[in-house]
Amino acid sequence: MERLDASGRFDVHEYRHGLKLLKDDRETMTLSNRKGFACPACGDEFDTLLVSEKRTNTFGNPGTPFCLVRTDDQLLVLTH
């Protein structure tokens, strides 16, 4: 299982072949994991990836376990 590389800056375009865009506004995008990529935090397969460049974020209750990964200028939230 290929693990997302979150060292430095995460480049979503490197993984577009296995991620489906669900929502995109200029600073935040939500993607579905269609190829079974592994989470960069725990190594398990994740369901949804949120990539945010915002300085502050508010999240509702995901109702499922999640991991947080901080890159140089992004926050990645991965739900399992």
Protein traits:
80 residues; 5 strands; 35% strand; five-stranded antiparallel β-sheet; cilium; flagellum; mainly beta
Q: What is the oligomer described by this structure? A: single chain
SS strand fraction: 35-45%
Structural class: mainly beta
Low-pLDDT runs: none
**Strands, total number:** 5
Strand order of the largest sheet: 1-2-3-5-4
Radius of gyration: 12 Å
Report, as a whole number of angstroms, the end-to-end distance. 15 Å
Q: How many H/I helical runs?
A: 0
On the 0 to 100 scale, the average pLDDT is 93
Largest sheet: 5 strands, antiparallel
SSE succession: EEEEE
User: What form results from the Cα inertia axes?
Assistant: globular
Number of domains: 1
User: Which percent range fits the helix content?
Assistant: under 10%
